[in-house]
Amino acid sequence: MTGFQKAFAPIDAPNDDFQSLFATHPSPMWVYDPGSLRFLIVNNAAADLYGYSRQDYARMTVLDIRPEQERKRMLDAVQARTDMERAERWTHLKANGETLEVLTYGRAVRFDGRDAILAIVQDRTEVNAAQRQVSDTRSMLDSIVDNLPVGVFVKDMEEDGRYILFNEACGVIVGHDPEGIIGQSDSIIFEEKQTAIFREQDSRALGAGTTISFEETMQRADGTPRILRTIKRALPAPDGGVPRYVLGISQDVTEERSVEARLAYMAMHDALTGLPNRASFADHIQREAPVATTENPLALLYLDVDHFKHINDSKGHAAGDALLCQVAGRLMQLVADGDLVARLGGDEFALLLRLERRENIERFAERLLRSLSAPFDLDGVDEHVTCSIGIALAPEHAEDDDVLMRNADLALYAAKESGRSTYRFYLPEMRLEAERRHMLTAELHEALLKGQFELHYQPIVQLDDDGLAGFEALIRWRHPVRGLVPPMEFIPIAEETGLIIQIGEWVLREACRAAAAWPDHLKIAVNLSVCQFRHNSLLATVVAVLDETGLRPERLEIEITESVFLADVEQSLPLLRALKELGIRIAIDDFGTGYSSFSYLRAFAFDKIKLDRSFVSGIETDPGNLAIVRAVVGIGSGFNATTLAEGIETEEQLRKLRAEGFSEVQGFLLGTPMQQAEAEALIHGGASPLLAATGS
Ligand code: C2E
Ligand code: CA
Ligand code: CA
Questions:
Q1: Eight-class DSSP state of 346
Q2: What percent of the chain clears pLDDT 90, i.e. is strictly above it?
Q3: Bridge-partner residues for 248, per DSSP?
Q4: CATH architecture of residue range(s) 148-257
Q5: pLDDT over threshold 60, residue 12
Q6: Contact yes or no for 420/306 (Cβ under 8 A)
Q7: Is 62 or 596 the better-scoring residue by pLDDT?
Q8: How many H helices and E strands in the chain?
Q9: Three-state SS string across 65-90, please?
Q10: For labelling alongside 654, which of 9, 61, 480, 555 has CA 20 to 30 A away?
Q11: How confident is the model at residue 142 (pLDDT cuts 50, 70, 90)?
Q12: Angle, alpha carbons 436-437-443 (nearest 5°)
């Protein structure tokens, strides 16, 4: 007979309804004997949940459905009745060995007339798992938020904007420990001014309904300024009501911005001197040239270091760099605030000045030249340089930046042409001159194609027997309209445009061909431009021409000027030596007019020194000239070189130079440059040009 009898409300008649309610109740339940701990009755739900058979239950005690470690607690609880009338957490064992997490609820009852305990079980396994998952998820989210490389924070606006979230990155950005910030509001953490800024942002975010974003500079706790990029937005209230929380995401972009600033700086500045570069200069002039007015004019000065390449080549690039930096420093010292000094590249600088009167600009240019004429200290060695300056004014000379730059360039060209170390203002004629040069260049190309060049030959007389030593070949251009054009009018342009290479090769071939037909003792002198020395085909060309014409190398004399040494000595010297090696004679032309550095006389053994004609013309009037002339004879004999005096025009000059001991002479007195046929008539006429000239 089974049935329930409530301990304190015994019901004597067993009640079938209760029994069936117990059996079919969805909550697992059983009744056990607190003395023997044996199961007295187990309902269906319990049987299903635990999986033990009815026979099992008949043999088991309530300890058997507990894992070993829980049994002691159970015994204690039963004895002390502590698990009665309240829910208690337990772990139970199922028949298949799995564990269940349960809440049990114990109650004293009367069963079959004795005291028993009713246990009602609630299976919490799934609920617990779900809860665990929720809490796992929550802590995972927390850890994600904490490990985000951006600062994330949430403020509760109903609670004075107290922080309810403030991740690690936020802490790093502001320099505060996040722990101390949660629960605090801005006014406790930041200064008043900063707090006001944050408050204004928060209320904007709350009102905006969308994300607001901004970049701001704030002080970190240690006082260092940081640039933050922040977005803020109100988190929508779940019920669609007034938002309460403001979410913020901040990124420290200080480094990013400083890299950007550095890149922007580098794009607009010259790395060597730190001056604004060409791009920056172009920016300036584009902005300023069009707005220049007569009352508020703009002066553009182009400045170029004369012979900078020479310094770079002879002293090395480090010295060249040091020089440019010092030039930049001097320019910066001279300009006023608001004026621009830029390095356009190489040894080219530009200055943009706001000087109103032309006299002021002139004075400035003179000051510039003076400042730059003081020696530069290149590694402890004083180096003197000069500069050329071209000046164009807006709006006087040009109204837009392009024309202004072109005009300053023309003025600079003119300054260089007029002997360097000076300044020139732009003049309209310079444009015409540039156009003329441009036209000339095109015409020179044509001249070469159409064979408009010819060589004239000027006799060279040797003074030991007054006989003909040979000729110097001098180029002429027979222009269809302008007639015979002298070399000084087109050689410089041919050099500038590189056409000199082809012209020079033609001269060499033509001169050697003519000379090859002359008596074997006559020499032919050919002028070579410094540009030809920079071109690496020179040696091969000379060898080929000698080979083609059959001229003995000993009969060829190459005339070069000192400028060859101003160019690339490293390249010129071996080339000169190779030419000499072939048997060709090398003469130094226009001696005395160059840079008067005698070092190259030691570096290379010239076969001939040609004294420049300016010394010859001054010989009669200026006693100083005579001293130089004498010195040249001395140098010639010291270096074992033939000495020749050029530009002899009078008997008196000839007499003096003969007396000084020159070995050769050349000049109008002895013969002007003449056409080939004339030269050959002179050769075959047998008459000494000296005798012919002097009529004796
Ligand atoms: P240079 O090499 O010094 O040539 C001598 C110049 O002096 C020639 O001028 C000649 O006509 C001139 N001359 C000769 N005797 C006298 C005189 O008694 N009095 C005066 N006042 N002048 C005299 P030219 O032919 O006009 O040549 C000028 C310069 O052009 C030459 O100076 C030379 O540097 C260059 N040149 C001439 N032909 C060539 C050439 O084929 N190639 C190169 N690269 N340059 C050349
Ligand atoms: Ca010459
Ligand atoms: Ca000469």
A1: T
A2: 69
A3: 153, 232
A4: 2-Layer Sandwich (3.30)
A5: no
A6: yes
A7: 62
A8: 28, 27
A9: CCCHHHHHHHHHHHHHCCCECCEEEE
A10: 555
A11: confident
A12: 90
Q: Tell me, what's the pLDDT at 13?
A: 41
Residue identifier of the C-alpha nearest atom 22 of ligand 1: 647
How much is the average pLDDT of 19-23? 87
Confidence at residue 695, expressed as pLDDT on a 0 to 100 scale:
43
* Cα–Cα distance for residue pair 678/471, rounded to 1 Å: 12
Q: How many CA atoms lie within 13 A of 536 on its CB side?
A: 2
Distance between CA atoms of 242 and 156, rounded to whole angstroms? Answer: 12
- Structure letter (DSSP) for residue 269: B
| Spans of all domains in the chain | 3-128, 148-257, 269-426, 439-694
Place of tokens 């091969």: 540
Say which range, 138-147, 581-590, 606-615, has the weakest mean pLDDT: 138-147
Indicate the SS3 state at residue 231: strand
Under 8 Å between Cβ of 531 and 495: yes
Return the C-alpha torsion angle 9, 10, 12, 13, nearest 10: 50
- Residue from 456, 472, 474, 614 whose mutation best tests the ligand 1 pocket (most atoms within 8 A of CB): 474
The amino acid sitting at 634 is: G
pLDDT band at 318 (very low <50, low <70, confident <90, very high): very high
Task: Find how far residue 528's CA is from the centre of its chain.
Answer: 41
Distance CA 150, CA 156 (A): 20
Which residue has the CA at smallest separation from atom 35 of ligand 1?
Answer: 487
What H or E segment, with its residue span, contains residue 328? helix 317-334
Q: Ligand 1 atom closest to Cα of 507?
A: 41
Q: How many CB atoms lie within 10 A of CB 685?
A: 10
Asked whether residue 696 carries a pLDDT value surpassing 50, the answer given is no
The residues facing 378 across adjacent strands are 381
SS (H, E, C) 575-638: HHHHHHHCCCEEEEEEECCCCCCCHHHHHCCCCEEEECHHHHHCCCCCHHHHHHHHHHHHHHHH
> In terms of DSSP H, where are the helices of 81-236?
125-147, 168-174, 178-181, 186-189, 192-208
Report how far apart the first and last C-alpha atoms of the chain are (Å, whole number): 174
Give one DSSP letter per residue of 379-431, joined into a string: TTEEE---EEEEEEEETTT-SSHHHHHHHHHHHHHHHHHTTSSSEEE--HHHH
Q: Which atom of ligand 1 is nearest to the CA of 612?
A: 3
Q: For the chain, what percentages of helix, strand and coil (3-state, to nearest 5) are there?
A: 45, 25, 30
Domain 269-426 has CATH 3.40.50.1970: no
Q: Which two tokens stand for residue 563?
A: 């400028």
Nearest listed ligand to the Cα of residue 616: 1
- Separation CA 195–CA 219 (nearest Å): 12
Residue 541 has pLDDT above 70, yes or no: yes
CB atoms within 10 A of CB 37: 16
Ranges 9-23, 248-262, 535-549: which has the least confidence: 9-23
Q: Which of 60-64, 457-461, 570-574, 672-676 has the lowest mean pLDDT?
A: 570-574
Q: pLDDT averaged over the chain?
A: 90
Is 655 or 356 the better-scoring residue by pLDDT?
655
Please give the CATH topology (third level) of the domain spanning 3-128: Beta-Lactamase (3.30.450)
Q: Which residues line ligand 1 (CB under 6 A)?
A: 458, 474-475, 486-488, 491, 504, 507, 527-529, 559, 589-590, 613, 647-649, 667-668, 673
Residue given tokens 């027997």 in the structure block = 465
Distances from the Cα of 230 to the Cα of 174, 225, 627, angstroms: 13, 15, 84
Query: Rounded to the nearest whole angstrom, what is the distance from the C-alpha of residue 474 to the centroid of ligand 1?
Result: 6
Q: What CATH number should be reported for the domain whose range is 439-694?
A: 3.20.20.450
The model carries a pTM of 0.59
Residue with CA nearest ligand 1 atom 17: 647
Quick check: 2 pLDDT over 50? no
Domains 3-128 and 148-257 share a fold: yes
* pLDDT score of 500 more than 50: yes
